[in-house]
Amino acid sequence: MMTETDPVSEAILRFYHRYDAALDDRLLDEWPNFFADDGLYRITTRENWDGGYPLSTVLCEGVGMMRDRAVAIQTSMTYTPRAYRRFQSGTLVLDRSGIEVETRSNFLVLETLPDRQSQVAYCGVSYDRIRLDGPDMRFSKRVCVLDTEMISNSLIYPI
Fold it and tell me: Among 17, 89, 140, 159, who pairs with 129 as Cys (CB 3.0-4.6 Å)?
C-alpha cells in the first residue's frame, strides 16, 4: 500500500500523473518514452485476463511498436476529433523487489466529442511494472484490463 511519506510511492504517483497529462494533452510522441525499450503495453478485457487468455485488443511489444502506433494515430488514421481525460485511483504497490515496482491502479477515461457531452470511454484496472534503475522511471509492462467486453470502435489513444 502507498503512504504519503514514502518517497518511492510519491515518485510513482508523479510518474502516473505525467503519463496521464502527456496523453490527455495528445503528446503521442512522448508516450513511448514512458516505457523501457523492451516494454510491453497491452489492453485486454476482464474475461481474457481472468481466463488467462493472451487475446489483446492492443498489444505493443517494445518501444518501436509504440512509436509506430503513435505515428499511425497522428498521420494515417481517420476519426472524429475527440478529447480524453484520464483518472487513476487506488494505486497500490504490490511488490517492490529489485529494480522494479509492481503496481495496481484503477483507471477511468472520459471521452468528449465536439458536439456531445462527455461520456465514459474506458473503465478498468491496470497491472504495471515500473523500472526504477535509471534516472527516470519507465514501464517495463503496462496491462490495462477493461471491465467490459463491449469495446468501443474508437479505441484509438493509449490508456
Answer: 140
